[in-house]
Amino acid sequence: MIALLVVIRWFHEISLMLLFGGATLLAVLRLALPWNGFRKSAACVALLGAILWFILAAAEMGGALNVQILRLALADTLFGILFQARVAILILLLVALLRQWREIWVAIFSGATLVLISVTSHAAESSPGNLTAFGAVSDGLHFLTGGFWIGGLAVLAALYAQRHADFPHAVAIFAEWGMVAVAVLILTGLLNASTILLGGAGHDSPFYLSVLGAKLVLVAAMVRLALINHFRLLPGLTTGTGAKLNRNIRMEFMAGLVVVALAVLLSVLQPTLG
Q1: Would you list the domain boundaries of the chain?
Q2: Per-position DSSP letters for the chain, written without gaps between them
């Protein structure tokens, strides 16, 4: 059950991050890419993932799966109420993509869906003084900055593959915004981890700490690649350095996919034991 939930949530969150980060960077650049078909598919994956996630969560909460349990989970739990809101926003996201609304709307709808996940996260539940909003805001910023990083990398890879003339400019803009995003991402990540581990009763789970450590190592590797791109490859961008830059972008992106998988795994594990 846990493995299935992790897979479903990974597809759900990655789809939203690609949509949010990609739309945000494209809105800033005022560019368009011929990838609306891909984005429609990503929105459908996000919607299907939300539904399957709710069904699995309801079955876990009720100890079984039937219509009555689904109805109670939908109407009488915070998770169910938030699920209804997320589905409504995801439908708006699909409409925005189908009607080809401006990128800012795609960013708003996908970003709002990401933020709503944080309301029932470990960070929100472990907030000091039962201030759920504190953890939810921190985790929401963590989602958004991570989404900008991953979705932005996907846009850069697509621009390079098309030999787009605006690729150097896009990399420069992403580097500027990305530095801020990475700083907020790291800060909120450390804040969330501290809140979760220090706020729980009992001793820290060794497995949870191992997964968290692996995530931090990968994030550090992504930051190193980002710094190389920004300070070494970008200033003297040529055909040769452009190829190296693209390789690093792809490596960052692949590492990001694994980081999100580890983050999803952390969200379903118990941080403390006993």
Answers
A1: 2-273
A2: -HHHHHHHHHHHHHHHHHHHHHHHHHHHHT---S-HHHHHHHHHHHHHHHHHHHHHHHHHHHSS-SHHHHHHHHHHSHHHHHHHHHHHHHHHHHHHHHTT--HHHHHHHHHHHHHHHGGGSHHHHT-GGG-HHHHHHHHHHHHHHHHHHHHHHHHHHHHHHTT-TTHHHHHHHHHHHHHHHHHHHHHHHHHHHHHHHHHSSSEEPHHHHHHHHHHHHHHHHHHHHHHHIIIIISTT--HHHHHHHHHHHHHHHHHHHHHHHHHHHHHHS-SEE-
pTM: 0.94
pLDDT in tens, 83-94: 999 999 999 999
